[in-house]
Amino acid sequence: MSYIDGYVLAVPTANRQAYRDMATLFDPIFMEHGALQVIEAWGDDVPDGVHTGFPMVVQKGEDEPVVFSIIVWPDKATRDAGQSAFMTDERVTGWDHNQAPFDGKRMIFGGFETLFSA
Fold first, then answer.
1. What CATH number should be reported for the domain holding residue 46?
2. CA angle 73, 2, 105 (to 5 degrees)
3. Residue pLDDT, tens place only, 25-40
4. C-beta of residue 111 within 8 angstroms of C-beta of residue 11
5. Would you say the pTM of this structure is higher than 0.90?
6. In Å, how far are 3, 49, 70, 96 from 114, measured between CA atoms?
7. 105 Cβ neighbours under 8 A, 6+ residues apart
């Protein structure tokens, strides 16, 4: 079964195009290193929640929609190799990470084993 990397972050609305540009650069690199699909989703209907929720977990600011991103890999071994290759790819290491269009300290992420897929 496939393996999923998931990311949740807050991106200022003013940085929407900069985020899209970053994704346009980085997401094909994941694909080159074995990812089957990458989805970048800009929050449109993300409620605050009472006790927890996406906005709380990323400490979303007033004009910062929540972005949800997933990378689908064929399996964990491919993901581990692909993530490692991505992190050492010169297009990634040569990119100025200070120009990231979001606060990486508030990003949450993790790897997930697929339980069921329809």
1. 3.30.70.100
2. 55
3. 999 999 999 999 999 9
4. no
5. yes
6. 6, 26, 13, 33
7. none
